[in-house]
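Quick illustration, no need to memorize.
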Amino acid sequence: YGYINYRNPKVEKVDIAIDKPLTCDSLKIVAVSDVHLGLGTGKSMAKKYVEMINAQSPDVVLIAGDLIDNSIAPVEANHLEEELNAIKAPMGVYLVPGNHEYISGIDACAEFIADTKVRMLRDSIVTLPGGLQIIGRDDMSNRNRKPLEELMEGTDSTRPLIVLDHQPYDLAGADSLGVDIQISGHTHRGQIWPLNWLTDCIFEQSHGYRKWAHSHIYVSSGLSLWGPPFRIGTHSDMAVIEVL
């Protein structure tokens, strides 16, 4: 049961209305996290995930960290760049590093990603054609990463703003700063019962969608997983977010 559950991620659909202008009527985002490409998530599973993403016909794909598992070596050996390059999103595919990119070697991971169509954001900002701004934060593993307040100084407060940050800490702080949408991952929601109770205690929001005072926040429990290939009491997920 746990293996079948893990192999069949849920597609979570979320509609988010923002009182800021877009130059398009709506924007479809596919958001995933914790793919953990490597020995556990190999070529066949990567291909399945890409097919799931492409089936949604997204405008943009956002990956909230831990795309790579514990080593870049099996990713390169199995040419998983072929799967990444098969993602179809006219406005691009954007990634922020997670703690596992640092475990795997952040420089080696960045070099691998640079040879794909995926763009890695590390304390940097990109604006999509529709006017949506994305702040991609470096992972907390980098103790010198820039504060969110500093990064927001480089954005237009009249335009919609998404923060992509692997670890969902200080969500109340992001809400107080006026972030419109934040997408995170990392927690796996504990992956196996009863560890989900622990992550629910540790994190302000350990999975799923929640509307805060200002911010709309989605925390993925992971498209794939880390460690044993089964989930009990939790679900793998992929978010399809319509920004209206």
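The two ends are 37 Å apart (CA to CA).
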